């Protein structure tokens, strides 16, 4: 893989490869764009089949964070990191602290948070080595409930656009992935009276949801062909490709997973099939809004975070209306929304601001 070519094509600023023999750390940090501010994006720990797969994932994820943070109105750029390994068996204190030292070496250009395989407790260990961490247990904690709330509100916006009413009562929702976000989303859907069809690679997760909410379970490969109103991808990204998109029997695709489409062209395919697609980096932006609250001068406030996530409803409506008005896919409409904000801020006149540490107080 030609790394510089990939960076040039996708617009990345910096890619850092991290290795520490004593802890066994093998990680990649990708900083995509810092026009709006320091790059914010979670750390994912996953047993990638190859280093090339890890690089491919981190490049896509970090670019997605640029668009997500811009679309959510945050003064933050986009970045991401991946740690190669099985979080269930290979995650140790020394590995996480080693990763924290690499984050610290970037001097604040990258702010890390939790993602798949990494939780709030792990962020505390990383915090031992660097202050450039958000998503701490004693602050915003687990972002999953907030992310799920944003997805839920985005689904209601899609329902309003598709059927003229935002209620999800009686709607059939096929949920792929029952991790932290998927589980919280299922709870909200069940409380509103949605009919649930679920799947996950972990049978215990499926059984819990079936018992608690009366959901119908299907095998992972069967979820795409379920006759439903909503298909909600809430697992890993890249599940919507030529094969799976052709199987869809839904009116709306709206879920929490990042990078749901393998290629941008699949957004056009969905539109041609008459399927409304809620772009992932807009509908799942609640987690970014939540952890960014830790950076506020007055500190984190959960009520404020939920109020800000409530705005995802309007952002999804804006994307859907732009798509319909301009005759373009919702992916293109969402990209325009994010890129236009980045371009506007990039044009602001830059003025010299001295480092506060160099300002000497006293008479002159």
What is the helix content? 40-55%
Low-confidence segments, given as residue ranges, are: 356-364
Radius of gyration: 20 Å
Q: Could you give the distance between the termini?
A: 58 Å
CATH architecture of the largest domain: 3-Layer(aba) Sandwich
| Nearest-integer average pLDDT | 94
Described by strand count, sense and barrel closure, the largest sheet is: 6 strands, parallel
Order of helices and strands: HEEEHEHEHHEHEHEEHEHEHHHHH
The class by helix and strand makeup works out as alpha/beta
CATH uppermost class of the largest domain: Alpha Beta
Overall structural domain count: 2
**DSSP helical segment count:** 14
Assess the beta-strand content as a share of residues: 15-25%
Overall spatial form: globular
Oligomer: single chain
The CATH superfamily of the largest domain is NAD(P)-binding Rossmann-like Domain
């Amino acid at each position: 893989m030609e790394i510089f070519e990939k960076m040039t094509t996708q617009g990345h600023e910096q890619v850092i490869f991290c290795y520490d023999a004593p802890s066994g750390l093998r990680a990649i940090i990708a900083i995509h764009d810092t026009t709006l501010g320091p790059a914010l994006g979670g750390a994912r720990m996953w047993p990638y089949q190859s280093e090339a797969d890890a690089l491919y994932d981190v490049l896509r994820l970090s670019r997605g964070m640029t668009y997500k943070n811009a679309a959510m109105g945050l003064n933050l750029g986009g970045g991401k990191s991946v740690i190669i390994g099985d979080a269930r068996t290979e995650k140790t204190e020394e590995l996480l602290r080693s990763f924290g030292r690499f984050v610290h070496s970037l001097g604040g250009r990258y702010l890390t948070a939790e993602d798949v395989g990494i939780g709030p407790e792990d962020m505390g260990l990383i915090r031992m080595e660097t202050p450039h961490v958000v998503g701490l247990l004693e602050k915003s904690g687990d972002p999953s409930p907030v992310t799920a709330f944003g997805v839920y509100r985005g689904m209601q916006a899609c329902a309003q656009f598709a059927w003229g009413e935002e209620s999800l009562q009686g709607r059939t929702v096929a949920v792929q992935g029952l991790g932290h976000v998927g589980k919280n989303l299922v709870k909200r859907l069940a409380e509103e009276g949605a009919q649930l069809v679920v799947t996950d690679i972990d049978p215990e997760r499926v059984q819990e949801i079936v018992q608690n909410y009366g959901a119908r379970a299907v095998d992972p490969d069967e979820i795409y062909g379920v006759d439903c109103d909503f298909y909600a991808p809430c697992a890993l990204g890249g599940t919507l490709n030529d094969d799976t998109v052709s199987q869809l029997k839904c009116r709306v695709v709206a879920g929490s997973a990042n990078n749901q489409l393998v290629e941008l062209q699949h957004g056009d395919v969905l539109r041609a099939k008459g399927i409304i697609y809620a772009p992932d980096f807009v509908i799942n932006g609640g987690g970014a809004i939540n952890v960014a609250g830790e950076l506020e001068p007055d500190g984190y406030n959960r009520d404020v975070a939920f109020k800000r996530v409530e705005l995802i409803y309007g952002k999804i409506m804006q994307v859907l209306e732009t798509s319909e008005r301009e005759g373009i896919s919702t992916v293109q409409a969402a990209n325009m929304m994010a890129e236009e904000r980045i371009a506007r801020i990039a044009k602001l006149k830059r003025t010299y601001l001295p480092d506060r540490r160099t300002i000497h107080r006293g008479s002159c």
